[in-house]
Amino acid sequence: MERHRLVFSGSGGQGIITAAVILAEAAVLYENLIAVQTQSYGAEARGGATRSDVIISDSAIYFPKVNQPNILVCLTQEAYNKFNPIIRPGGLLITETRYVKTHMKVDAQQRELPMYQTVMEKIGEPIVFNICMLGALIGLTDLVKSKSIKKALKTRIPSDFLEINEKALDLGIKMGKKYAGK
Amino acid sequence: MNENLKFIQGNEVCVEAALYAGLDFYAGYPITPSTEITEHMAKRLPRIGGKFLQMEDEIASLCAIIGASLTGHKVMTATSGPGFSLMQEALGYAIMTEIPCVIVNVQRGGPSTGIPTHVSQGDVMQARWGTHGDHAIIVLTASNHQDVFAITVDAFNLAETYRTPVILLFDEVVGHMRERIFIPEKGEIPLMERLRTSVKKGVDFHPYLPREDGRLPISDFGGAHRYNVTGLAHDMWGFPSDNPKIVYGLIRHLVDKIQNNVHKIARYKEYYLEDARTILVSYGSAARSALHVVENRRSRGEKLGLLELQTLWPFPYYLVQEKCADAKYVVVVEMNMGQILQSVKVSVDRPERVFLANRIDGVFITPTDIRNILRLIEGKGV
Q: Which residues of B touch A39 (CB under 8 A)?
């Protein structure tokens, strides 16, 4: 398989690292793939620039970081400004319409998704924003099966919150599929 | 799904391995980037009948595990640079009193509080010489989760074998990174249990009289024998002594028991060394970038190899000399100002052929960083 290099970027507290972990865990535990997840964040508990790198492959991964992602997710303006130049040509850039104003064209598919707004309208809980983003990513790319993500959600998310997370995932997948062909 | 297959952080792997090795007492104080070790230990240990203590600081943490170890427990604590600095006094005490324990230092940027959330390998020399006085120490490291597991179990085994503190010198990248690991089945990795004295209760027991093979059987403190334990130079009963002969014998014993067994303690991995013209020497997470470069260049037919050190101290000079004997160039890849570089230079016949590829800015060293140094050495410019 082609090696997938992903960078998730945004602000501390948005759940970026959790989303990255769930994706990589789904790939390793339920699809028998090899994945590595690393993260980079500041000393603050909330706020501050956060980044998580995920590599998914079927062969050994040594260098665990991503220099040039073929999939880049930016959930804040700061993250977009900082990371948008590193995207691999021909890659996929996903931004959140509420927080990010894109200001230049990159040599990649650009998808601006209203994930936050959708989550607030349909679920009303901003905490599942990250899982909606993950769903959108799956809807756009078929990186791993949604079934595998759901299994990973079950082990990672406290049972009281499982239902809204699953709902957010489905919302995201639907949105991703809708935007996939555009 | 294989139940032994996990996708977890290096810090969690360290916890699972310590429990596998038989750890039943842990004391610690959380500090980034080692916090997950303390956190998972707090969750796991009480459930299996062990004891977990959160202490007021790192000084108390190390003191607590030293005490617990002396009474017969397998113990560990975990910290990062600033906490490791606080532990140096008690570390010397554990060395002097020959009390087995495992200390994890998940390295972050220093000096002082430095850069808490970013990677570094700047504590290599501190692990060797951070505590005062002539001594020997065992310091181990690893670059991937399967090896973190094996080397952690090994740390407990070596601590028991040589009755010494063993330091696990991981780093932020290995500690925080998640990758897959297969937890070994019970019995897959042999365990070394504590050598206890056969001297009966009521019979004169010499707690600090080594056997002929250098090993020192222990009597669980508070059990059959009453004896003295002190950080002062001491005789075979454990009582303070400044008798030159006794002091000489004690220091030689503390150093020789480890230095004379460097061949048995040396752990390493090698990749493509047979015909390598250029050899990268690396350890910890930096070895992942080194291996990336080696695999890449090998696929193009270039003769590059990697010697990955897992035992940093006692430094395996003989090994580096032997493995690098035929190499034209040796490049040490590490995330500090050249702390292992010096030992590699001392090991090889032509130290002028040893170069450094490093990074000290809190950013994980990349394959490109290493390739740039290789190009410079090969006269290709950057």
A: 176
**Helices (H), ranges, chain B:** 10-20, 35-44, 58-70, 81-86, 88-97, 124-129, 145-162, 172-176, 244-259, 262-265, 286-298, 317-324, 341-347, 367-377
Structure confidence by residue, pLDDT tens digits, B34-92: 999 999 999 999 999 999 999 999 999 999 999 999 999 999 999 999 999 999 999 99
Contact list in A for residue B366 (CB cut-off 8 A) is 63, 65, 67
CB contact under 8 A, B7 and A39: no
Contacts of B254 (CB under 8 A, 6+ apart): B95, B96, B98, B134, B135, B136
Contact A37 B177 (CB under 8 A): yes
Closest partner residue to B366 (CB to CB) among A41, A61, A63 is A63
Both tokens assigned to B74 = 């397998």
What's the gap in Å between the CA of A108 and the closest CA on chain B? 24
* Closest CA in chain A for residue B296: A62
Instruction: For residue range A64-87, list pLDDT tens digits in order.
Output: 999 999 999 999 999 999 999 999
Backbone φ and ψ for B199, nearest 5 degrees, come out as -65, 130
Q: Which residues of B touch A35 (CB under 8 A)?
A: 7, 179-180
| Identity of the residue in A29, A40, A41 whose CB atom sits nearest the CB atom of B7 | A29
DSSP states along B241-273:
---HHHHHHHHHHHHHHHHTTHHHH--EEEES-
Structure tokens at B33: 């980037």
Q: CB-CB: which of A30, A36, A42 is closest to B179?
A: A36
Contacts for B321 with CB less than 8 Å, ≥ 6 apart: B347, B348, B349
For chain B, domains (ranges, CATH) are 1-195+203-265 (3.40.50.970), 269-377 (3.40.50.920)
Chain B residues with at least one Cβ partner in A under 8 Å:
1, 5, 7, 32, 116-118, 173, 176-180, 285, 288-289, 291-292, 295, 364, 366-368
Q: Which CATH class is domain A4-180?
A: alpha beta
- The two most distant CA atoms of chain A are separated, in Å, by 42
Contact A43 B32 (CB under 8 A): yes
Q: Where are the domains of chain A?
A: 4-180
B146: nearest Cα among B118, B104, B174: B174
φ/ψ (deg, to 5) at B117? -100, 10
Cα angle for residues B148, B153, B155 (degrees, 5° grid): 90
Q: Which residues of B296-320 are buried (b: 16+ CB within 10 A; e: fewer)?
A: ebbeeebebbbbbbbbbbbbbeebb
Q: Note the pLDDT of residue A40.
A: 87
Which residues does chain B have with pLDDT short of 70? 1, 382
Chain A residues 22-81 with a CB less than 8 Å from chain B? 24-25, 28-30, 34-43, 61-65, 67
The per-residue DSSP string of A15-30 comes to -HHHHHHHHHHIIIII
